[in-house]
Amino acid sequence: MMRTIRDCCSRLLIKYIIIIAALSFMLSGCGQKEELTDEVKIAVLAYDEYDTLIDSMTKHMSKWCRQKEKETDIRITLDVVDARKSQLTQNDQAEKFINEKYDVLCVNLVDRTDATMIIDMAMAADTPVIFFNREPVEKDLSRWDKIYYVGAVARQSAEMQAGIIMDALSDPDKFASIDANGNGTIQYVMLEGEAGHQDTLVRTSVCINELVDAGYSLEKLGDEYANWERDQAKTKMLEFIDRYPFQIEMVIANNDDMALGALDAIGESGYPLDPFVVGINGTADGLEAIRTMKLDGSVFNDAEGQADVIMEMSYALGRGEPFPDTIELTFDKYVFKPYSPITYDNVQTYLE
């Protein structure tokens, strides 16, 4: 009787071992088809977390990752760090994330001409890099096939900003209200972004050249760098107001924050003129200022659209998958999102 029981147990044990072995083989076979991890680790290195546009982009990246986790059940680690406008700090941050085996670096360069160290480290570790907003020089981008850039074409933003101004000046009544002294020449001041930044250089020169080429008479009273910041722009604008107490008819700013800083100064000083003020980016505060007819216009920079693209690319790189069909690469390197002009007539579309 005991022998019969032992024989039964032995047969059951053998069957159990066979079933476990078969299941193990099946599972290992599935694993061979897809050598993909269940986690994607993405590092975002911002030049300055207080930049309004960059802040909106990184917040949307976080939102994108949370939604993607729900859709896929794939864990996404997203770390965003601020270099506080120091390239040395940003280099150290890149080295840290590379050593911690992050799948991809998304880099908003402090100094667009100084990407060498980050690229060297990334290439040595085989870690892809997506630069964004601050475009590295072409020679750096061409060094490796795992380097990309996501942004917008600066020239387009300047052309559209000039278009907003020309639309206003083409209306005789509007021209008369802007040309406060009636001399047929528009006296303006320019608030520029950051010295050496490609957007500063292009937005400043192209906007003015477009207006001059269209036949408008302009007189530049002054221009100052305000480093994209509202408070700095307010300070610079107050200095302009002290120098030109009755002459400033137009303020052209390289971004919305500086345009809003100019409006702050105009309001605080009780400036007797009502200058025509334009910015670029279409930030939340900028849109609201257009809606309330304080800011005369801006050019929409699709921060959320760019953030989506950066995260789609990062996710694909981290998973070892091809980019989605929605990602349109130019020269296998660049993804550019288009700008669009904003005035009071269409601002509600962007607010919605």
The CATH topology label of the largest domain is Rossmann fold
- Return the CATH architecture of the largest domain: 3-Layer(aba) Sandwich
CATH class designation of the largest domain: Alpha Beta
Strand fraction band? 15-25%
Secondary structure: number of strands: 12
Q: In terms of quaternary structure, what is this? A: single chain
Uncertain runs: 1-10, 12-36
Shape: elongated
Radius of gyration over C-alpha positions, nearest whole angstrom: 28 Å
What does this structure look like?
The structure is a single chain. The protein has 352 residues and is an alpha/beta fold. The chain has two domains: 39-152 and 302-321, Response regulator (Rossmann fold), CATH 3.40.50; 154-300, Rossmann fold, CATH 3.40.50.2300. It contains 13 helices and twelve strands. The strands form three sheets. A six-stranded parallel sheet has the order 2-1-3-4-5-11, with helices on both faces. Strand 1 (39-46), helix 2 and strand 2 (75-82) form a beta-alpha-beta unit. The longest helix is centred in the N-terminal third of the chain and has 32 residues, at 2-33. The protein starts with a helix and ends with a helix. Residues 1-10 and 12-36 have low confidence and may be disordered.
